[in-house]
Specification:
The protein has about 675 residues and is α+β, with helices and mostly antiparallel strands. Helices cover about 20% and strands about 30% of the residues. The chain has 14 helices and 31 strands. The chain is globular.
């Protein structure tokens, strides 16, 4: 979401960062607060390279190597949902039927479910804790939340009223019969309703009016099982709007009854096209499934024509989505609809499609949405892990960027690079956390950070880098300088104000880029990263599973990096301290001393240029800083050194570039020799 999520660099942000860089270069003391007493280093190698970072040992559930253990388990939730959409009352009513399987080694005597619509109630914890200084999940009008009409338990063919209690965004069911370990099942039937709130761009779902009708972006729309895992048991952190989700995997079968003039797009596959589409629309849809070019299913000329939909008062759209953690959908009579084929590495095909209102039409706007979706999915599938859903849908509404399995919600006013960025980012979430099912409530960086890391890799390839802009880590760091006091390993709801952009998105993404480009190299990093995805696809990894996998598959003990980068708020300030010529003669070589003035230890890249025009690049590993805050290299110069520059490519988050360059031209030379 744009006000919550900046995704990757937009042209607007890059211009702002460029202005900051220009100002910084004209004001040498801009970082004086970090430079005071610079001669005294704050660096302590004992804190960085501690042997005690990994305190826990592997067990039968999670291996010390980062892979699931031989007895790894997770519970399962399968859903059958039937609802109706009332476009007069803006209301959803229906039934959720859940089959819950206890694969844990524990007996379960009570269940916990999520009632996320309760976040829109006036008496919600969100309403009590949200302030102007909070990250802006916005409620413009309160609703009654989830209106639970009945809760029943079905076990052994017997149906009985459940003993249940609703608390804010959670519902507890106390079981009369214990749910036994290792495979026992129970079925839950919940009859419910809720009023669809008005959409504000950052509140993930809702309704918004276009000139040809209401657009409904529907998410968090059914009672969902909380996760029961081997780490915390029941994960019952309440939903207050900012922190996202942690969900069990299962199969979904759902039906939405709505007025016949609406187009509905949902997670998974439409099972009854013959019942809800015209013959012409079905023919076009079949053509799109065979086409690498975008094909219109419903175009602007047919938008309000009665003949563009079956002649009934209402239709029931039936979808299924397999092995997924969630489902969402969108509906509107204002939707145009186009689609194209997705070609997956295995040879399988999927469908890229977009639905959007007339306001989004434009050759450099939503008419390219399906092109973007197709390329995003194909590129991520080829690089990391194959896309797992039959359809990939981009919805143009007023939700300003939100992700769900197989479907994303975007703002229909987005154009050009901004539209590419939001589609690239939101569909990147189909890998993190839809395929790799991390706990977003506790560790937002495991989906936002990893996703933000892979986004520019896609952008650099798409259409020969049409929207690609190289990252300047020094500039990025200075832009977020005042936002660094929060560490990455901070629970989402605790992160203050705009700091979340740094802790959840940019810092973890930058850290992974540094590991890929400066520490492991692309080949080792990419193998380790793919290994992590393959190991934890459709499972529930922890940060330690990620760290251990990257160490083991990458062939490097990175505990020092995870420690400093994810758990601290330390800065980086590498400097060229001194240049000396051996015996006073540049032709004998030079001794170049660099120093580490702040807390972080990272590799060093130096460019050395001599007076005779010779230029060399010297790369040093982070392990030089195990010896202390200073390091001296012997460089075989043959003439005076014109300059030594650290981090010439601006790849590291150095807070003070003013000390990154030093000249050796003014050093006295012993002319008597």
């Amino acid at each position: 979401m744009k006000s919550v999520k900046r995704h990757v660099f937009s042209e607007r942000i890059m211009k702002k960062l460029t202005l900051i860089l220009l100002l910084a270069s004209s004001c040498p003391n801009v970082f004086s607060q970090h430079n005071a007493g610079q001669e005294v280093s704050k660096y302590d190698q004992h804190k960085v390279f501690s042997p005690l970072f990994y305190s826990d040992r592997g067990n039968e559930y999670r291996s010390a190597s980062g892979m699931p253990g031989p007895k790894y388990w997770q519970n399962r939730a399968d859903y059958k949902i039937d609802v109706s959409l009332d476009t007069i009352k803006h209301r959803i009513e229906g039934t959720t039927f859940i089959t819950y399987t206890n694969n844990s080694p524990d007996k379960i005597t009570f269940l916990w479910l999520q009632l996320d619509q309760n976040v829109f109630r006036a008496d919600s914890r969100h309403a009590s804790t949200n302030t102007k200084k909070s990250r802006s999940f916005t409620v413009v009008e309160f609703t009654h939340g989830d209106e639970i009409k009945s809760v029943n338990i079905i076990k052994g063919g017997r149906k009985e009223k459940a003993d249940w209690l609703e608390t804010d965004t959670r519902l507890q069911i106390k079981l009369s019969d214990t749910l036994r370990a290792a495979g026992d099942r129970i079925q839950i039937e919940i009859v419910y309703a809720f009023d669809i709130p008005l959409t504000v761009g950052d509140n993930r779902m809702g309704r918004a009016e276009s000139k040809n009708g209401w657009i409904y972006d529907i998410a968090q729309w059914y009672p969902r099982m909380e996760v029961y895992d081997d780490i915390s048991g029941w994960n019952v952190i309440p939903y207050t709007g900012d922190a996202e989700f942690y969900l069990e995997y299962g199969d979904f079968d759902y039906t939405i009854k709505a007025p016949a003039d609406m187009i509905i797009a949902g997670s998974g596959e439409l099972m009854n096209p013959a019942e809800v589409l015209t013959t012409k629309a079905i023919s076009r849809l079949n053509a799109a499934k065979k086409s690498d070019k975008t094909v219109f299913i419903k175009d602007s000329l047919e938008l309000l024509q009665a003949g563009s939909y079956p002649k009934k008062s209402s239709l029931s759209w039936h979808f299924t989505c397999k092995n997924t953690r969630d489902i969402s959908w969108a509906a509107s009579k204002a939707f145009l609809w186009d689609a194209a084929r997705i070609n997956l590495p295995s040879g399988k095909k999927a469908l890229a499609q977009s639905v959007y209102p007339l306001e989004g039409v434009g050759a450099n706007a939503w008419e390219r949405s399906t092109e973007y979706v197709k390329n995003v999915v194909e590129l991520y599938s080829a690089k990391w892990f194959e896309y797992s859903y039959p359809v990939a849908t981009s919805v143009g509404g007023k939700v300003d960027g939100m992700e769900y399995p197989g479907i994303i919600f975007c703002d229909y006013t987005n154009k050009a690079g901004e539209l590419w960025e939001v589609i690239n980012h939101e569909f990147g979430h189909n890998w993190f956390p839809m395929i790799v099912g991390s706990n977003e409530r506790k560790f937002p960086w495991m989906d936002e950070g990893l996703n933000t890391f892979i986004n520019p890799i896609n952008t650099q390839v798409f259409n020969k880098g049409e929207y690609y802009q190289a990252q300047d880590a020094q500039l990025l760091t200075r832009y977020f300088l005042k936002q660094m006091p929060e560490s990455i390993m901070t629970t989402q709801n605790v992160v203050q104000g705009p700091y979340s952009d740094w802790t959840a998105y940019y810092k973890p993404a930058l850290g992974l880029t540094i590991l890929r480009e400066q520490v492991l190299g692309r080949e080792r990093f990419d193998f380790a990263f793919r290994t992590y995805i393959q190991r934890w696809a459709f499972k529930h990894p922890t940060p330690w599973d990620f760290f251990h996998t990257m160490d083991n598959a990458g062939g490097e003990d990175l505990s020092w990096f995870w420690n400093e980068w994810f758990f601290t708020t330390w800065y980086l300030d590498q400097a060229v301290k001194e240049i000396k010529y051996i015996d006073g003669d540049p032709s004998n070589g030079a001794l170049i001393t660099i120093e580490n003035l702040e807390g972080l230890a990272l590799p060093v890249t130096m460019v050395i240029k001599e007076e005779n025009g010779k230029t060399d690049t010297v790369r040093l590993p982070a392990e030089i800083w195990q010896r202390g805050a200073d390091w001296t290299i012997s460089y075989k110069s043959i003439s005076k050194i014109e300059f030594v520059t650290i981090d010439p490519g601006h790849d590291l988050p150095d807070i003070n570039p003013n000390n990154n360059t030093l000249s050796g031209m003014s050093i006295p030379v012993d002319n008597k020799r």
